[in-house]
């Protein structure tokens, strides 16, 4: 049965489905489970999970090997939301945005609902991005590859501008935290000339401050220190969990949010260097902007969980677009997959679709199967995941600290990362005490290098003229969006304050 | 939050000043209309401005009434835990990961008044076994062994 014609090739549905025997399905299932495990633990990244299964795939045929790696990748991106929601410790950077509302929902006893929303959103985003990959791969890759330094700079600035939205009550403190993050991001080698900056003579500092140990410190270690304050409280459990299921009305209200976030994630995923973290924050910001109740974001809004999860999982399919069509990886895990494709005798690029079309179509079907397994594991595993909340704080807090050391050390087998994690954890504790948001620091550490290098490259391209930033349409649009995203929360705050003053005067 | 805001603002200004001064040591090499100091200087100036605004905000808030909730109590136990955590990290370097983790977990459980021996010994042992099987054997992450 032929269902579509694409550049002269036909997809024989029955022959592809028949290759999915029990062994292959089992491999995909195991890959998803391994990925979820890796993704949920801070310090064990999606890239690390892909690298670790790569040697295992060598002994398999091309389809099986690639599907193992792809399912681990997809599972790890989803897995980050579990600890983000349950204990405010994102397992992956792309889950940091999920923690904003996800953890608030857990505090209200709605962890079950939050995990359900995150699972459904993740799978929807993942499947939609694979469908987009199948039908739009060549066209979409063409747009993304045209992204040059000014567009990437504008995208990074847009990503940073959402600091205003995620800073909660104190936008000023959020901006300060973001700028501190940008300054820390400038430690290390200058991206254009390679000159060491702020290294203070240390070779470790010359390599820069990696955002991962900072993230582990600011979220996991700081949260563990903070929970020690009331460790002798009579409550043996962190929060009570009400088995409240997601209602159809609630889900209906999230559909548009999920679809929009999936589209954003798929497109951002295609841009080399822009990963799930940028997509998650951008989608969160847009979801808040479009919401009828934006003031509820940050206080436990289901849309604040759905948007980043749909977006970050949609980047998985999006990142595969430039990888498979042009041989350009969209993010770090796909860079590893580039090597995997070559090892399995598949040359990524336009010829992949000519010479190995059945393999490519099998991979497409396998990606959808992997997402279905994530749905099954996620929904049936919620009862298991929630058990984490029943561990007494006296046990959980020291265990989290041990995992922080393990995670920070495992990144690069360097104790410098462990010290960075420790310092970040101590600073993070005081940030919690004095209500300084930590997310802007992480966002700035991720986007800072991208921002600076592309800003300087843009000026090189334009011979020092700033015209390049407003004469290119995509750049101009992104800069306008960045400006709106940055200043809209300020203006809203001023209007709200004036409104309250007026109300008080009238009453 | 008035006094903390003023203190944070001062710290932020000092930090921006340090970074700004340090940029004078960068070479004045023009790398296509920018140099290594260009972007850090922009960040430092913006940070100093925001720090100043925070100080003004804190100063204005100081004139309002202070409620009990404004005063932040330092929990001594947290600082003790931080100290133990630092010793634990040093222990990982010199004694190895498994031994120092066992000692750290036992210490933390004693400090948090866990009295049952089965918990005091059982939880650290199970945690170490988990780390050994998953990270040591399955993932083949080489953990520090210290002097041993």
UniProtKB/TrEMBL annotation, chain A:
It comes from the Bacteria. Residues 25-443 form the DUF112 domain. The keyword Nucleotidyltransferase does not apply. Keywords: Membrane, Transmembrane, Transmembrane helix. The keyword Membrane applies. The chain crosses the membrane at residues 12-38, 114-137, 143-163, 170-189, 209-228, 363-386, 398-422, 434-451, 471-491. It holds the Pfam family TctA. InterPro entries: DUF112_TM. PANTHER family: TRICARBOXYLIC TRANSPORT PROTEIN. This is Tripartite tricarboxylate transporter permease.
Automatic annotation (TrEMBL), chain B:
Pfam families: TctB. The keyword Transmembrane applies. Keywords: Membrane, Transmembrane, Transmembrane helix. The chain crosses the membrane at residues 7-25, 37-56, 77-97, 117-135. It comes from the Bacteria. Residues 7-144 form the DUF1468 domain. This is Tripartite tricarboxylate transporter TctB family protein.
